[in-house]
Every structure is written in C-alpha cells, then in structure tokens.
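Why predict the complex rather than its parts? Because the way molecules touch one another can change local conformation, and only a joint prediction can capture that. The input here totals 622 residues.
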Amino acid sequence: MDGDAILARLRERLGARVLHTHAQGGDHTAVLTREAVPEALAICRDTADLRFDLLVDITAVDYLRFPGREDGPRFEVVYHLYSVPHNHRVRLKTQVEEDDAVVPTATGLWPIANWLEREVWDMFGIRFAGHPDLRRLLMYEEFVGHPLRKDYPIDRRQPLIGPKV
Amino acid sequence: MAERVTRELFLGEGAGTGGGPHNVQVNMGPAHPAMHGIIRIVAELDGEVVVKADMEIGYLHRAFEKDCEAGPYNNAIPFTDRLNYVSPLINNFGYCSAVEKLLGIDITERCKYVRVIMSEISRICDHLTCVGASAMELGAFTVFLYMIKAREFLWELVEDVTGARLTISYGRVGGVRADLPPGFDLKVKKAFGETRQVLEEVHSLVTRNRIFMDRMVGVGVLSAAETVAWGITGPLLRAAGVAYDIRRAQPYWAYSKIDFEIPLGKNGDNYDRYLVRMAEMEQSMRIAEQALEGLPGGSIQVDWEGRAIDPAAYVDRGKQGKTEGLLLVPIKLSPNLLGQDRAAHARMDSGDKRVTLPPKETTYGSIEGLMNHFMLVMDGYGIRPPAGEAYVAVEGANGELGFYVVSDGSDRPYRVRCRPPCLPPVAALPRMIEGEMVADIIPTFGSVNMIGGELDR
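Output of the joint prediction:
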C-alpha cells in the first residue's frame, strides 16, 4: 500500500480527528488529535491491509524555539510505524501543550512502548496516561528537570548522587 | 506466546518453583564482568530460577541528542561514532543519509558503493565481537581470541581508509571524508581470507560443541510474533524466522544492485541467533566483494604524475599572490588528507556547494574555493537544510538504526533522534530470562549484543 493510500485510510476511519497530513521527502505523516492516538494506533496495527506490527520508535520534539511555532502547542509526540508483511511505513504525530503534557499510552498495543514512553517522559516530561510504570529510563531518579527540553541549558550541572551520609 | 523450555529441577524441597517467601533479590551489574560495566539487572530468584527481572540502563548516558542540537550538522558526526562503537561507520552513514534526505540531495554512485563496502566490514566486526564475547562468557576463550584476531585484520582495513580504528568520523553529509586508498581491494581480499579461515575454525570449535549447545539451544526464546511486538529487528528478528532486512525490504545506497541472501533461523533462541550472525558475516563478505568489483569511477589507484609540491609551500605561494596557474599544478597532499585530491573529490562527493567542502587544492588555490570553504565552516553558516523532518533507517549490525532529524532552517539540527537498535532487545530481556536459570542470563545477554554507547546515548 502506498503512503497516500495509508493516509487516505486513516482520514476515512478517523475523520476530522486527523488534523493534517503531509509527505515531505516521501515520509508520509498524519497529525492527529491527542484523543485519537490510541484508536489510530490500534487501527494501524489491526487493519488487515495496514498491519503496522512493528512500533519502530516513539519520540518527541520540543517546539519552544522553532521559528514560527513559538505560540503553537509546545510538544509533538512522534510515532514511527513499520509493517513487516506489507513493507510500508507511516509517521503519526500529536501535539500537546506544556501545561497539559499528557498522551494516552500505547503499552497495551506494543510491549516495547513501555520503555520508549519512559524515555520520552524522562527526556521531555511528557506523561503517558495509563502507563504501568512511568519511571525515568536513562537519567537517575533524583535528577531535576527534563534534559531534552529546549529551556534546559546544555551546560547545567547537577550534583552526582552518592550514598546518603 | 513463546514455547517455554521446561526443565526437570533437582533442587530439593521448596526450591525451584513457586516458593514466594524464599525469593532472593540479586543484583547483576553494573560492575559485573558479563554486564560490560554499564547495565544492571535486578533479578528476583527462587532457588536458581529467575522469577522476575528488572533492567536499569543509563550508566553511559552522554546526552548525544542534546549535543547534536548544539552544533552544526557535520559536528554531530564524531558523536555518532560513539553510538555503536563496534560498527561506527554505519552510524556515520545513517546520520548523513538522514541529513541528505532533509536536503534532498543525492550522493555519487561511487560513494554509495564505498558506503556499502565500509558498512559491511563494520557489520562483520560487530558480529565477530558479539559472537566472540558471548562465547568467551561461556568458557570458549579460544573463540574470543580467534575472532578478535580476525577483527584486527578488518580494523586494519578501516584504519587504512579512515585513519582511525574506532572513532573514525569518516562519513560526511553529501559524501565521505576521502576516497579509498590505493590497493584497497587486494587488502580486502587478504583480510577476508583470514576472516573466513577464522569462521571455519570457530564453526569446528563450537557449532556442534556439546557444552556450547547445552547453554544455547532453547535458551532465551522469543517467538516471531513476540519479537515483532517488542520492536526487535536485525539478527534477533531473523533468528525467529522473520525475513525483515532493510537492505532488502527498502534498499538504500547500492544494495539493490547486489546479490545476497538473508540467513534465517527458526526457533528464535540463542543458538539460532549465533547461527544467523555466523551466516551473516559470510553474506557481508559477499556483499563487500561484489561492491568492490562493481565500484564505479574507474581504478581507485591514484597516480601522482608531474610535479609534486609540498602543501605548505603551496599555501605559501598562494599567500604571496602567486596564484597564476596554481590550480594546474598537481600537488601531493599530506598523508592524513589522502584521497582528498580534486579527482577523488569529484568521484566521492555530491559536488553540491551548499553541502560539501571543496577539495583542498581549490580552497588554497582560488578565492572561490576559499569563500566556499568559509561559508561552510563559519558559525551561523554551513549546511542549512530547509525546515522539515526526515527519518532514515539503515540496517545496523543490531537491527534497524534510525535517525529522525528535524530542521528549522538554520545551520544546526533542531532535533536529532537516534532509534537505537539494541534498546528493544534489552527492554525485552526480562521477558527472555524470566522462568530460566541464573546461568542462562549470560548467554542470553550475550546474544542480545547490548552496546552501551548506543543503548544509553
């Protein structure tokens, strides 16, 4: 199935909840409302001619300082999906505001979403509603802040955590 | 769900199954020798059986993605060396391909072949290290020594081309740093001969070895459906019988013109993973040999005819304004710039002035070249892809290595995300070891081929 057909199928199933689609550089992308994410992921995984069985990646982008997007929603959560039987890809995105940075979890669909979502929480401070175990993945528990946010200075130092005295 | 291998346990009353209150929590790592110093497994044991396991990673976190945002596009290349440090060339090329996609440029045909050759050599190095190290952890120290010997021959090839063994920084957006050195094909032939001999020796040492098979067969099993659900790609997925290889499914560079097979396993256990890796090394050698044969752009022998002139003297003449006819004088560049002469440059680099540095003769010999050079290295200038996003996946030694790059139109990447191929198998490791023996953790962990630099970034 080619990328345009995939996007058409998503629009057909989700209607107005698909906010916008594009195919920059051949990467077919659909931007969804936050509420549509679990349904969209389930459709992608379970529809016979889509069958995106491989959740390649979940990541996020902080658009705080992106020229022209300073006023829009701050974060974008990005899902990359691949279908092993059909050999096609799609990218799904959803936007969330800083003061309400919560996205429904995908752990019920793919077990790997557990770690990928933990990393997004760790690095961006975006919560995943319904995640069973939302701990930091790469940083340590006592770390303050979320390092991949654009307002986290690259040279900030935090004390190393040693045994308590 | 995977078919679990059950065993008869002779552990006495109370041990072995179900005795909740007797469970013991055991830490493996981060200082455990088999955990490579950078990972911790908190395992809950009932007797010798792992009931529950939790992984703790991040000991090698170096803020790769944050660092990439801080500098111009080409500055991220040395950081990518340190992702999968056993096969750094694939990381270099993967990142460069993502930026090239963002820019919408294509690389030269010869460069595509060079990337294929160097990627395959890296893949062999990676598999050699993985198989060697995990065999050593099972007591087969000889295998480790043999395989590291073979890796040494391959690293000599890498050193010949890039000037370094590990932190190679050979990829460039729009090309590679330099052309292949003279006589490279002969050296490859020799090194592959040695590697093939080592592989044969290793086959005869462990493939049908009783101890090795007892530790590997039926251990760490994941079914095909589960492997896919866990997002696992690469040799682990192929060992479960799923023929997903990006080199074949969505060919990039020159892979579509090359004939190779995808070795498949059946059971998805550690033994099949070992067999798949062993077979893939042979296929990688086939690919590299075919690519060397089909390498376009004529001979890679560079013939220095005419008057050679020392680069320093060349620069001095330029400074004195004696530039007349200077561009026509063939110069011999210093050894660390081997393969960067104008002819090699034309063969290897995309020639897009927005992206690739001009050859050094042009930089030192003409004002246009100098300006072009500065436009690419000055702060605030450099490579400036249009605003947008691109995802490129290449087949890394451990599976799908993806780079998701977002550009805001400036000379620095707005966001670089590396999709590490060894994160999903490590996330799935508790699933692989739960219900098995403590001693089974070691071969399973070895078969995952956890590479800390890439896992923790």
